[in-house]
Automatic annotation (TrEMBL):
Name of protein: GNAT family N-acetyltransferase
Phylogenetic classification of the source organism: Bacteria, Pseudomonadati, Pseudomonadota, Alphaproteobacteria, Hyphomicrobiales
Keywords from the UniProt entry: Acyltransferase, Transferase
InterPro entries: Acyl_CoA_acyltransferase, GNAT_dom, N-acetyltrans/Recomb-assoc
GO molecular function ontology, one term from the record: acyltransferase activity, transferring groups other than amino-acyl groups
Source species of the chain: Bradyrhizobium vignae
Domain N-acetyltransferase: 8-160
SUPFAM superfamilies reported for this sequence: Acyl-CoA N-acyltransferases (Nat)
Enzyme Commission designation: 2.3.1.-
Name of the top EC class for this enzyme: transferase
Length: 163
């Protein structure tokens, strides 16, 4: 018989989570975005985790932590009622449904808060994930991080009555 894999769980963000979430953030960028962004762009992006504003942004948003056996493996944050600000999953668990679980929860929470749609500024490597979930591209953006320009795409999804 096959082994039973640990079941992921969700919990709210705690201030003590900032160091581990910063590590997930940087590992995710370093290992999962190399096909879409240069090394210099990745380094500029990862530098955001070293800024004290990183923890403040997590605390200001509704941030959910995905855990496996109690250890954080991913996180997502909802700014206001209708904008996904962050979605990062540790590369070791990428493709195992963690991001889907996080976004499912944010979509339900956004709907519960009265949002009729949800938007995200998706990195180039995340566009496919959001497109499969019904998000459509609205516009391309260029964002300055340090001395680098990074591109992303604003994507939007209309939330149904069942959200």
């Amino acid at each position: 018989m096959g082994q039973t894999l640990p079941k992921p769980a969700l919990r709210p963000f705690l201030p003590a989570d900032v160091p581990i979430l910063a590590a997930i953030f940087t590992a995710s960028i370093e290992e999962l975005t190399g096909d879409d962004y240069s090394e210099a762009q990745q380094e500029a992006w990862m530098a955001a985790a070293e800024d004290e504003e990183f923890g403040k942004r997590l605390a200001a948003d509704l941030t959910l932590i995905a855990t496996l056996e109690g250890s954080p493996v991913g996180f997502a944050s909802l700014r206001g009622n209708d904008h996904i600000r962050m979605l990062y999953v540790h590369p070791a668990v990428a493709g195992q449904g963690i991001a889907t679980m996080l976004i499912d929860a944010l979509e339900k929470l956004a709907g519960g808060r009265g949002a009729t749609s949800l938007s995200v500024d998706a990195s180039d490597n995340a566009q496919g994930f959001f497109a499969k979930r019904g998000y459509t591209a609205q516009q391309r953006n260029s964002v300055t991080m340090g001395d680098e320009w990074l591109a992303n795409t604003t994507m939007k999804k209309t939330l149904g009555a069942g959200q």
